[in-house]
From TrEMBL:
Composition bias type Basic and acidic residues, residue spans: 164-198
Transposase InsH N-terminal domain boundaries: 16-117
Family, as annotated: Belongs to the transposase 11 family.
Membrane-spanning segments: none
Record flagged with keyword DNA-binding: yes
InterPro entries: Transpos_IS5 (IPR047959), Transposase_11 (IPR002559), Transposase_InsH_N (IPR008490)
Region (Disordered): 162-198
Protein name: IS5/IS1182 family transposase
Species the sequence originates in: Rubrivivax gelatinosus (Rhodocyclus gelatinosus)
Function of the molecule: Involved in the transposition of the insertion sequence IS5.
Keywords (A to Z) from UniProt: DNA recombination, DNA-binding, Transposition
Record-annotated Transposase IS4-like domain positions: 206-350
Length: 364
């Protein structure tokens, strides 16, 4: 018999959000790890709001904002307006964030108002460090074999916004720039002054951009250090040298670092060796003056292993630009770009941890 096309909505419902989410849903372990990390930040969250006037209206819980920001990366939600819309009717999103079915969703402007506060207290950095510590506690990090690399992050600015710093072309149309030589010394973007014209190869045009730098552990390709910087021809090697030095001091023993040909410079190799780090850098034999890497390094079997494993670092960049929002950020300013890049790498680590937990259960 044909059923009727209609329904009667009950006045009261006894169904819990927890019952809508399958027991094997991939967000379940991610939410558990996220909650453990956020519980460790309770003291910092309290300090963030100490300066607020007492007796005022309670703000949105920072834990809920952090979970919502993570969802935006995990589900490729382009804007915060779309994220708030999704949370309003998506039961899975409500469950992950920690909202009941009848709870009202906040306005999208809450993210903008709280972003500076989160940056000031390095909350996203602490969340990222918590994912690294989780990986370390589960035995997923080698702690001695690493890789470094950088990627281009297109800024939220166009060529038309790049004007002379002295204002001599303010009376010209924004489109009238073709054929005119431009450099970061004489020009800057009016939309995002901290962005720099940069390109990583001659096959691509120079765009207002930032650089994202990552260090991964070679065992499972998990990100252990992350930083965004202004685009510069030396920034990749300078930031990588800083990361390598920090990793060597934390390890307390000699470590290795794999890198591509762009890092085959005497300055970077010297910085590695001064920090008791073995530079497993790909040789750039076409470089003027020859490669900075010689037989002292290449004769060891570990060099070939590092050269194979270092390519896994491209996976986090690809994930961040395809799944995340790092291909072109919708934020302006280095601090905000760095926060988003760090959050994206934290989300990448959480997805990798979930996959590794299925393949390699804890204690196995």
């Amino acid at each position: 018999m044909r059923g009727a096309d209609g329904y009667n909505e009950s006045l009261f419902s006894t169904v819990r959000l927890e019952e809508f989410v399958p027991a094997n849903h991939p967000l379940r372990p991610i939410r558990q790890w996220m909650n453990e990390a956020l519980s460790q930040l309770d003291g910092k969250f309290s300090a963030m709001y100490e300066a607020d006037v007492k007796g005022g209206r309670p703000s949105i819980a920072p834990e809920k904002l952090m979970r919502a920001m993570l969802l935006q990366v995990l589900y490729s939600v382009r804007s915060e307006r779309q994220l708030v819309e999704q949370i309003s009717y998506n039961l899975l999103f409500r469950w992950f964030v920690g909202l009941a079915i009848e709870d009202a969703v906040w306005n999208h402007s809450v993210f903008s108002k709280n972003r500076d506060r989160l940056i000031e207290h390095d909350v996203v950095t602490d969340l990222f460090n918590a994912t690294v510590e989780t990986a370390r506690s589960r035995g997923l990090l080698s702690g001695e074999h690493f890789s470094v690399d950088g990627t281009l992050i297109q800024a939220w600015a166009s060529h038309k916004s790049v004007r002379r710093k002295d204002g001599s072309d303010d009376d010209r149309p924004p489109e009238d720039w073709r054929g005119e030589p431009r450099s970061n010394d004489t020009h800057e973007s009016k939309s995002d002054p901290e962005a720099r014209l940069y390109r990583k190869s001659d096959a691509a045009p120079a765009l207002p951009s930032y650089l994202g730098h990552v260090m991964t552990d070679n065992r499972h390709g998990l990100v252990v250090d992350v930083q965004a910087s202004q685009s510069d021809g030396r920034a990749e090697r300078e930031v990588a040298a800083q990361m390598v030095g920090d990793a060597a001091r934390a390890a307390g023993r000699r470590i290795t670092v794999g890198a591509d040909k762009a890092y085959d410079t005497r300055g970077f190799v010297k910085a590695c060796r001064e920090n008791e780090v073995t530079p497993h850098v790909a040789q750039n034999l076409g470089r003027r003056g020859g490669s900075a890497i010689d037989g002292r390094t290449t004769r060891h079997g570990g060099y070939a292993v590092s050269q194979r494993r270092r390519k896994c670092i491209e996976q986090c960049f690809g994930w961040g630009k395809v799944v995340g929002t790092m291909r072109q950020v919708m934020l302006r300013g280095l601090d905000k770009v760095d926060q988003l890049f760090t959050l994206t790498m934290a989300a990448y680590n959480l997805t990798r941890l979930r996959s590794l937990a299925v393949v390699r259960p804890q204690g196995a």
